[in-house]
Amino acid sequence: MPTRRTHNKTRLGCQQCKRRRIKCDGKHPTCANCDKKGETCSFLQLAPLSRLTGPTLSRGPATSVSPLSEASSLHTLSPPDPNSADNEAAKLKRGSSQTSPLAGNQLVYFPTPLQRDVPPSEQCLEPRGSSSPKPPVPIYYPEMKIWESSIPPYLRLNDVWKGIREPLPPSLQDVLYHYEYTTSLTLANDDPAKAAWQSCVPEMAHAHDFLVNCVLSVASLHLGRLHDDKTQKINMNALAASRMNKALTTYRLNLENITATNAAALFASSTLTAVYLFRTSALDIEALRETIPYGTVIPPPGVVDKMMSCVLRTVWGLRGPLTVLMSGWNYVVNGAMHPVAARKWWPRRRTPATARAEEEDRRLQDIDKLWMDTDKAWEPQTRHLNEALAFLRETYALVSQLTLPGVFPPMTAVPYAVDDNTTGVLTDRGAIFVWPTQISREFIQLLESKDRDALVILAHYAVLAGRVRNVWWLEGLGADFVTAIAMAIGIENWHLIEWPARVVGVNLWNAFGVRQDRLVGKPDELHMDVI
Q1: In angstroms, rounded to a whole number, what is the distance separating the alpha carbons of residues 315 and 327?
Q2: 10-residue block means of pLDDT along the chain (531 residues)?
Q3: 426 bridge partner residues
Q4: Are strands 146-147 and 140-141 parallel, antiparallel or unpaired?
Q5: Distance (Å, rounded) from C-alpha 384 to C-alpha 502?
Q6: How far is CA 377 from CA 17, 367, 370, 386, in A?
Q7: Is 109 helix (H, G, I), strand (E, B) or coil?
C-alpha cells in the first residue's frame, strides 16, 4: 500500500504562496513560485537594497516624496507602450543591466557579467558623448508590473552590513547574508530581542572585529546544520571554528577592560560564543557516539571524559555573558542589547505555577537526601550542593510560570514540552539559562571532579534544555547531558537519574543507539529545518 509522502511545514513563506496555499521555497528576493508565474513576491519588499542591487550611481539631489504621493503614482501612470520614445529612452538608460525597483531616488542596477570586470569609474549608464544630464525617465518593470516611483520610501532599507560585507570574499558575504536574514532570528524568541540581534549587532560590529568574527562563526554553524551534504557540513563547521578562534584573540583582550563603548559588543560576543559552545558540544558528542560500537553499555573511560568535557564546556560558556554583565551591567542594559539582557517583566516571586510543576518541585527537593541523610551533611561541599539545588528549583518554577498561557506579554514563544507528551509554549527560553549563571565556581569544580551528587543535579537541569523544541543550537543538548552523566556516575547510580533520562528520551541501557523522541512529528511542531 503506497504511503503518503511527508513534507516539512513552513510558516515563513511569502504572502502570494500563502494565499494560493502552496509550499513556498523561501528563496530571496523572489521565491520560485512567484518567479515562475511572474507575480510580485512579497519578499521583494523586505530585501535590503544591497541584496537586490549592485553599485549605485546618484541621480542627483534626493527629493522628498510622501508615501501617499508615491502610492498615487501607481494609479496615475500606465504601462508604457513598447514602441514609444519614452520607453526607448528608458531602455537606453537601463542599458544591458537590470534595475531595481527599490532604488528610490538612485539609479541602481545589476552589472552584467561583462560589466563586473570593469572598474566602477568606467561603468556608465549614460550613452557616451552625452553632453548634459537629462531628466530622469520613469522606469516600468513589466516582470513585476510596477513603476520605480511606486515603491514607498519607508521600504527602501539601508544595508547595515555594507561596510563590513564589501571587503569580505564572496563566500563570507554569503555567510553574513545568512546571519542577517536567518540566524539572527534564531537567537531570541521575542521580537525586541530579535531586532537587537538583526539591527543593533551590525552597528556595533563596525567598531569591533571580534563581534564580526563571532557572527560569521555562528552563522557558519547554522549553515552546517542546514546542509545535507556531509562535505559542506564539515567545511562550514571548520569555518566556524576558524572564525571563533580569531574572535577570541581580541575578545579576551577587551574583556580585561569593559567600558561603555565595548560592553554591549562584548555581551553580544559572549552570548554568540555560548551559542557556539552549545552547538559544537552537541557535534563533538555526536562524533564520539559514532565511534562507540552498537550495543556498548559503558564506553571506555577516555570517551566518558571527553563527553563530560563537552558538557562542562557549555556550563562554562554561559559564564561569559555573566562576566560582562557583572562588570558592565549599566552599560549593557542601557544600550543596544537591552532587550536581550534585561528581563524586568519576569515574576520576582518564583513558585511552581501548576500541579505538575509542584510535583516536579517535590522531586527536586528529595535530591538533597543524597547528602543530607548521610555523613556528607557536615562536609564543606554540602553548602554548594544545597545552593545549586535551590537555584534549580527556582529555575523550574520560573519556567513553569512562563509557560502559563496569556499571563505575560504576547511575543513569539518557543515550543516547549510542558508535559513530555504534548508541546506547549515557553514565553522566554532565556529562563532555562538562569541556573548555570547562578551556581558557584565551587559547584562547577564538583562537576569537574565527577562528584555523583553534583552530576545528579546537573542531570535534572538537563530536562529544561531537553524540553525546548525547534532551536537548532540546543538540539540534542538535554539528551547529551544525561548520556554523559550516566556514563560518568556508573550503572549502580542510574536509578538516581531515571526520571531525567525518561523525559529527554534516553534509554540508559542502549544510550548509544537510536534516540526516541515522543514529540517528533507532532502536527503542532515546526520542523527544525525551517529554523
Answers
A1: 20
A2: 54 79 81 85 60 38 35 36 44 38 35 34 36 44 45 52 91 93 88 89 94 96 92 94 94 89 92 94 92 88 94 87 80 87 77 88 94 82 94 93 63 53 67 90 94 96 88 90 95 95 90 62 37 32
A3: 414
A4: antiparallel
A5: 27
A6: 64, 13, 9, 10
A7: strand
